[in-house]
Amino acid sequence: MPKINKDLVTNHFGLVSDFLSECWSQLRNQSRVSELQNRVFFGGALSGRDTNAINKTVSGLLKLLYPSSDAAVPDEDLEWAVRIAMEVRRRVKEQQKRVGAAEFRNTHFSYIMGADGVEKFVSTPELQSENSIGGDPLEPGQVWSISPGGGEENSGLYRIEVNEGPGNGLKVLNKPIPPAFRESIGFAEKNLYARSTQLVGDKDPRQHEFTVQLRAFDAAKSGAKLGVASLVALCTSLLKRSVRGGLIIVGEINLGGSIEPVHNAVTIAEIAVEKGATSLLMPVACRRQLVDLSDDMATKIDIQFYSDARDALLKAMAE
Asked: Number of C-alpha atoms within 13 angstroms, CB side, residue 115?
């Protein structure tokens, strides 16, 4: 509520309060849930109780904005109400999840506006540790990755962010562009063009312009050997699909489409656990190295393997 000031005070308080009380009583007998039908589709993580709570909250917010039941509710106000309702419901479940109840474990709340819309996830970032990547799926085109390092640079955590629009070509927004990342994103771009049918179906990536930004979360800045994660980011931005929450993708792809070996798989797995990842997607050639991963670390993360770029993309995308 806004801070009480003179502008909110009247000389006929009794009449105003009685009138407002009657307004609230009349509005309680109405519902705006029908505004959601065929306009908003909830994600599969919501239980029946979640859906009921969200419907009631959306209905209440819309009644405050549009007291008349005949008023047309625009999409932007409907989406605003849905996001608020999902966020407050998720905060309730996050608190309940702390007690370990099984029914409260999945809080990846999402919604789709319209039959042809893009799935959007509602997050509560302040509930996550600053040093953790979190368990929420990122927006389409965003992928977490770890560079294996090499030379004088250690391994480091990165987030690749890709947006697509009309046009053609690829532009990296980082200034200056790290040479090693320029090479990796170049490999990813060429593989996307050469294998577009396998990766994105009937979509033509040459008819889209991609803007890429690399964000570093450690001392490492080169962005070396992030080709597979870059390719997945390009594909998901085009497909309007998110990758699974808490997932880190590791590996480099060359111009011929082959996956290059990773020589420090155990170190990368340990970093992934430290950063709060729940899943790690690595080249299948790393499997033998991970025999040396400690039992404690192995129980904290789900490590999956891919054989090629298409396999990596399919295993990375959220169901």
From this structure: 2
Residue 69 contacts by C-beta under 8 Å, 6 or more apart in sequence?
30, 32
| pLDDT at residue 125, as a whole number | 60
How crowded is residue 9: how many other Cβ atoms within 10 Å of its Cβ? 9
For residue 15, name the pLDDT band (cuts at 50, 70, 90).
low
Q: Which of 10-19, 30-39, 146-155, 193-202 has the lowest mean pLDDT?
A: 10-19
Q: Which two tokens stand for residue 43?
A: 């994600």
Domain ranges of the chain: 6-113, 128-316
269 close to 236: Cβ distance less than 8 angstroms: no
Q: Residues of 212-251 as b/e, b for ≥16 C-beta within 10 angstroms? A: bebebebebbbbbbbbbbbbbbbbbbbbebbbbbbbbbbb
For residues 224 and 160, what is the distance between their CA atoms, to the nearest angstrom? 12
Report d(CA 141, CA 242) in Å as an integer.
7
What number does CATH give the domain 128-316?
A: 3.30.230.10
- The mean pLDDT value of the chain amounts to 87
